[in-house]
Amino acid sequence: MIDTYGRNVTYLRLSVTELCNLRCRYCMPPEGICKRAHDDMLTEEEMTDAVRAAAALGITKVRITGGEPLVKPNILSICRRVSRVEGIRETALTTNAVRLPEMAAPLREAGIHRVNISLDTLDGQKYAFITRVGRLKDALAGIEAALAAGFDKVKINTVLIGGFNDDEVPALAALTMKWPVDVRFIELMPMPGSAFSGKAEAFVPAGRVLEMLPNMEPVREHDGVARLYRLPGACGSVGLISPLSSHFCAECSRLRLTADGFLKPCLHSREEICIKGMDREEMTEAMRKAILMKPGQHEALSATEGSRAARAMNRIGG
Ligand code: SAM
Question: Which residues line ligand 1 (CB under 6 A)?
C-alpha cells in the first residue's frame, strides 16, 4: 500500500516477545524487563492474523524479531505460520544467535529464508560487557550453525559504539572474507533504556567505516536502507546503515508490530495503534490507518537528542 508520501509499504517487523536472553547495554535496562501477563501479549493466532491483514495490504516481507525471538517457546510454529501466509514472499528473522546451534536447521525448515545476527565485537570480554550476560563463543557457534543450515542469506549486524568497538571495524568487516556473510555497521540510536543515550562520544557516524577501510569498493546492489561496499576478494558485502547521519525516512517501507499488539508507523514516534483483540478485518483497517499515519520523516534525532519512541528497543523490535 502506498502511504501519504508515496512510499510503498511492503515490510512488516513483527516482534514476538519482549524478553531476551541477553541484556545489551544499548537496547534494554540492566534488570531486563518484567515478564508481562500472557493476556497482554499477542497470541500466535493474532500474530498470524496480523500478517494476513498485512499481506492483504500488499506487505510481502516479514521480519520476526524481539526481544529475542528464539526464547519464545512456540517460535517454530509462528515462523511456519507466518511464512505460509499467502502473499508473503520472504520471511526473515533477527537473533543474537545464542540459540541457533539447536534452532538454525528447524528454523530453515519452518520457512525462514534469511537471518540477521547481532554481533558487536570479536573480543570475549567485550562481548560479556556489552551483552552483560552473554558468551562470545555461543554467538560464534550460532553463526556457524546458520551458515551450515543453508539460509538464503546470513547477515551480521554490528552497532557502532565509539570507544567500544570502533577499533574492531577492520576485523569485523574481515568476516566477509572468511564467511559468506554480509556485515552491516549500524549507527547507535539514542533509544529509551540505552546506557549510551546522551553520550555523544559513543556515536560514530557510519561514514567513519569508509575512512577505516579505504580499499572497499561501492556495490550497486540494492539492500533496503544499507549503502553497500565490498572488500577486494570478499564473499559478502559490508553495509552502512545511518539512521542519524543520513536518515532514510524517504525510503522507509516499514510498519512495526510490537509483541503486545501495537502498530508503530514510525520507530521514533510515540504514535501507536493497538490491534490486540481485533478480528482480521479490523486489523486490516488498523494497518491501513497506521500506514497513512507514517510521518514524512521522524523528528530530529542526534547523538544527544533522544528518540521520541516511548519504548526501549527490546519492547519495539529491532
Ligand atoms: N535479540 C535479537 C538480536 O539481538 O538481534 C533481535 C532484537 S534486537 C532489538 C534487533 C536489533 O536492534 C539488533 O541488531 C540491535 O543491534 C538493534 N538495536 C537495539 N538497540 C539499538 C540502538 N540503540 N541503536 C541501534 N541499534 C539498536
Answer: 20, 26-27, 65-66, 68, 94-96, 118, 157, 159, 186, 188-189, 191, 194, 313-314, 318
